[in-house]
Write a structure and sequence with these properties.
The chain is built from six helices and no strands. It is an all-alpha fold. The chain has one domain (17-108). Helix 2 crosses helix 4 (58-68), helix 2 (19-41) packs across helix 6 and helix 5 runs antiparallel to helix 6 (85-108). The longest helix has 24 residues, at 85-108. The chain is elongated.
Length: 110
């Protein structure tokens, strides 16, 4: 009977250590960072005008996307300390996606 109880506990273990979860977390963190930057810095305009400003001002878009990747470093170390290596790898992949976006904005759009 004790063996069956232990078997049920191990079979109900969550497997949230996946790369795609890390990518989603990393990209969501970047979007959340951009929104928090809006709340802190650009409260004098509405959200639609803020996104129009980001779209039209290529000089402003690149640094904002760069800053949005910084919180990924903190989340990366949190998952690394919890031994969720695949999720941490996904967060790094999301950070590389953001870096490629910055390069794309810098080279092709300016």
């Amino acid at each position: 009977m004790i063996f069956l109880i232990k078997l049920k506990k191990t079979s109900m273990k969550r497997n949230d250590n996946k790369i795609w979860i890390g990518i989603v977390i990393g990209l969501f963190t970047a979007v959340l960072s951009i929104f928090i930057l809006y709340l802190v810095r650009y409260t004098n305009m509405n959200l639609g005008d803020y996104f129009v400003l980001l779209y039209r001002s290529k000089r402003l878009l690149s640094p904002i996307v760069s800053i949005a990747g910084v919180p990924n470093l903190i989340i990366f170390f949190l998952f690394l300390n919890r031994h969720k290596y695949k999720t941490a790898r996904g967060i790094i992949m999301a950070t590389f996606i953001l870096a490629l976006m910055v390069v794309f904005i810098k080279i092709l759009l300016t």
